[in-house]
Amino acid sequence: MSTESKSDFWQQHIDAWKGSGLSQTAYCQRHDLKLSTFTYWRNKQNKGRRKLVPVSMPVQDAPVELALPGGIHMQLPASALEQTLPLIWRLIREQA
What we know:
By secondary structure, this protein is α+β, with helices and mostly antiparallel strands. It folds into two domains: about 5-45; about 65-95, no CATH class. It is about 55% helix and about 10% strand. The protein has helices spanning about 5-20, 25-30, 35-45, 80-95; strands at about 65-70, 70-75. It has a two-stranded antiparallel sheet. The protein is elongated and about 55 Å long. It comes from Microbulbifer halophilus. This is IS66 family insertion sequence element accessory protein TnpB.
């Protein structure tokens, strides 16, 4: 089976699992799949997908609150976003 075929195979199972309401373990048992392989492909498929949230830019002096991973919340002026966001993005990537 080619890598592309494997990727499609696992993506179909990942999508079916998400809609199943089952735990990963239960889904894999029901479909005779190895849990570690399922987890590997789920992580591999998710790596290329970033969760982006659409935003609208407030007035330059208005405060903006950022909710970051780990429960961190930051409040800073909108005018600081251009300098701050690339730094935050880099730090998050380094932690992953």
